[in-house]
Amino acid sequence: MSPQGVFNTGVTYVPISWVIIRRGPIYPAMFSPLLLIITTAMDSLLLGTNIYLGSVVGTMLIFVGLYAFLWGKGKELQLSRAAMTWPYPW
């Protein structure tokens, strides 16, 4: 096993663990589709491959879905905080 692999795995697991502790296990899974977008962009920039209309539409759908999820999760957190402090608004 190479030292680069160990370092890369450690660098990956630390932020994922931190996000899971702070927000729950759904958040890291929601950001996995962004890796596809980053890979497509880097492939186009570095290797000069073409990006087709289907890729652009798919990218837009991923962003809309991610935004909708984060918006809904934020609303859910606001409602749960309001419900926890309802009788005592201070």
From TrEMBL:
It is a multi-pass membrane protein. It is found in: Membrane. Keywords: Membrane, Transmembrane, Transmembrane helix. The keyword Lipoprotein does not apply. The chain crosses the membrane at residues 26-45, 51-71. The keyword Transmembrane helix applies. One of its GO terms (molecular function) is transmembrane transporter activity. SUPFAM superfamilies: Multidrug resistance efflux transporter EmrE. This is WAT1-related protein. It comes from Panicum miliaceum (Proso millet). The lineage of its organism: Eukaryota, Viridiplantae, Streptophyta, Embryophyta, Tracheophyta.
